[in-house]
Amino acid sequence: MRREIPLAITFITALIMIVSFCIPHAPFGSMQDVSLKWYSIIAGFTMLLGVDSLIHMHSVKIKRKKEGWVYSLVLILGFALFVISGIIGGIRFGSAMDIRSSFMYLYTYMIVPLQSTMFALLSFFIASAAYRAFRARNMDATLLLITAVLVMLGRVPVGYQMWHSFPAVAEWIMAVPQMAAKRGILIGVSLGSLAVSLRIMLGIERSYLS
């Protein structure tokens, strides 16, 4: 029964969503709204479980003084700081997202600079990966290299100064060949998602129960 009940809940929920999507009239149309409300409630509880798991894992790491325990300490202290500031901001201003709250101050002057730093570092990794991928080792890599160069030249002012048609060429590449490949990938992803959804709905895929 420990496996049959979750499988039955999954099947019934998926069936309700499909019926409410295909038949938007009452009483089926309201089923989707009710299911989404239940989903929001369950998602809140799963977030609490995730927070509990995160704090427990890093607390054990700090207690046993494992490698990198200092970073775990910073994470827990930062988490506590943001939670406390969010509660104080909610009490004082009615919302933690108020621009006058300490939560928004911490977000603006801590999270935003950290995000900028992370993306700045990622740009170097992307440049390194692009350098390795754009080596003209074969015909496919050569086409990729030529296309990338044309698109980059069409998106910067230097390319326009070199040849006025570079922006038009870049726009054509993005609108025709790139879009065709993108749609093919999206169709494949959609079919794969449909297949996985059916496997989960019918109980063939049960990895989420482990």
TrEMBL record:
- Name the UniProt key words of this record, in alphabetical order: Membrane, Transmembrane, Transmembrane helix
- Superkingdom of origin: Bacteria
Locate the transmembrane regions by residue number: 7-26, 38-57, 69-94, 106-131, 143-163, 183-202
* Name this polypeptide is given: Uncharacterized protein
**Native organism:** candidate division TA06 bacterium
Lineage in the entry? Bacteria, Bacteria division TA06
